[in-house]
Amino acid sequence: MREYKYIIKDEEGIHARPAGLLVKKASEYACDVSIEANGKKVDAKRIFGVMGLAAKHGQEIIITTEGDAEEEAIAGMSEFLEQNL
Fold first, then answer.
1. Secondary structure of 31-54 as H, E, C letters
2. Which residues are catalytic?
3. Which of 5, 19, 55, 83 could lock 37 by a disulfide, CB 3.0 to 4.6 Å apart?
4. For residue 30, what is the DSSP state?
5. For the domain bounded by 2-84, which CATH number is listed?
6. Domain ranges of the chain
7. From CA 78, how far away is CA 37, in angstroms rounded?
8. Residues 8 and 19: beta-carbon distance below 8 Å
9. How many CA atoms lie within 13 A of 18 on its CB side?
10. What is the C-alpha to C-alpha distance for residues 30 and 55, in angstroms, rounded to an integer?
């Protein structure tokens, strides 16, 4: 299991467009990818779960990968977050 912590820099937080992109990116990986914020942990491959976190600017989120190619997945997800959120 790998974990990556990230502080949201996007002024609007995780709103519809970046949430959709995040789900699309997470779906590229065979392993389990989850995202945690506000004390809730959800499947990062499910748009309603990601939107339901209501993560705002300045909040910390935690991405967790577990399973096949988890190293590749955590690297890809961390790069995505740095570029998009």
1. CEEEEEECCEEEECCCHHHHHHCC
2. 15
3. 55
4. S
5. 3.30.1340.10
6. 2-84
7. 15
8. no
9. 19
10. 25
Provide the token pair at 45: 């491959």
Rounded Cα gap, residues 64 and 23, in angstroms: 14
Structure tokens at 63: 């991405």
Tokens of 83: 């570029």
In Å, what is the CA distance from 12 to each residue of 38, 56, 64? 16, 7, 23
* Plot region of 22 (φ>0 → left; ψ -120 to 50 → alpha; else → beta): alpha
Give pLDDT tens digits for 37-60: 989 999 999 999 999 998 999 999
Q: Please write the tens of the pLDDT for every residue from 11-23.
A: 999 989 999 999 9
Per DSSP, 1 falls in state -
